[in-house]
Amino acid sequence: MIDLNDIAIFARVIEAGSFTAAARLIGTPKTTVSRRIAALERELGVRLLQRTTRSLSMTDAGRLYYEEASQALRRIEAANIRLAEARAEPAGTIRISAPVGFVSHFLADTIFEFMATYEKSRVELRLTDEKLNLIDNGIDLAFRTGTLEDSTLIARRLGPTYRLLCASPAHLARAGAPATPADLAAHQCVIAGPSAAHAIWVLRGEKGEESVTVSGRFAANEMQAVMAAALAGYGIAQLPYGIAFACIADGRLQRVLENYTTPAGGLHVVYPSSKHLSPLVRAFIALAEKRLHEADARNVLPDDA
Fold first, then answer.
1. CA distances for 26 relative to 23, 236, 296, angstroms
2. Below-50 pLDDT ranges, the chain
3. Which residues does residue 170 pair with via DSSP β-bridges, in sequence order?
4. Do 151 and 167 fall within a single domain?
5. Sequence-separated (6 or more) residues with CB below 8 Å from residue 149
6. Is the pTM of this model over 0.85?
C-alpha cells in the first residue's frame, strides 16, 4: 500500500532539486529519503527518478506522477489550513468601508453583534461614498450598491437594492400627492445629487420604466441629509428601502406612487482576494449576509413585491 508520506517526500525531492536538500528541509537523514523514494517506486512498479552522482532528473513516468501528485498534495494542504482556520476563533482587526447612509440600515447592529460573538476581534469602519482602492487603503472588505464597475475585486451579491418615493405627511397635506410619475415634475423634490435644479429620476412600474425630470430646493450627496430634508417637509425623496422602512412604519414618512420603485440594483460585498480571505472576514461576510436576509424578510411593506 502506498504511503502518502512517501509521495510527499518525492514531491519535496523534486522541488528541492536533490536528496540532500530535501532531507535538510524535512529534517530527516538523506538515507531515509532515499529509502522512502525506493519504496514508492516499488509500490508503483516504475522508476520515478534517474540518479547519478552529479544529477537528479525525473523519468517520463516520474514527471507525470509529480504533476498529478503535487496538485493533490496542494489540495490536501489547503484543506488542512481551512480546517485549522475553521476550528480557530477568528481574531484580529477587520477594516470595513461602506456608504455613509448605509450604517443606519443594518450595518451597525451587525458589527456590534459580530464583536460580541468574536471577543478577540476589532472593527475599524470607514464611512465614505467614495469607492476607495481597497488595497491601497488597507481595507478588508467594502459594501457597494448599484452596478459594479469591472475590477479585479471579488464581489458577492448579497441581495437587491431599490428606492422608494417618500414624503412627510405635512408636505403631502400642503402640496398633495402625485398621481403619476409625470406629476413629479410639478412637485418639490429632495435630490440625492449635486444640483437641486435638475435631476432625472427613472421609475419602474407595471408599464416598465419611465423617466421624469425633477427639481427642488434642496440637494445633498449624502443619504442621511436627503432623508432629514424629507422628514422636515421639503419635498418628495427617493430613499433606499432599508433606510425608508422605519420612517414609513412609524408614520414619519408616507409612500407616494406606491406602485413604483427605482430599477433594482444590487448590494454587494467586495474584497481583494478569495484565496487568502481570513477567517475573520469570512465570518463577518456570513453574518452580514444572514442579517440582511432576515431584515428583508421582516421589513416587508404593504403592496411590496
1. 5, 71, 53
2. 299-305
3. none
4. no
5. 131
6. no
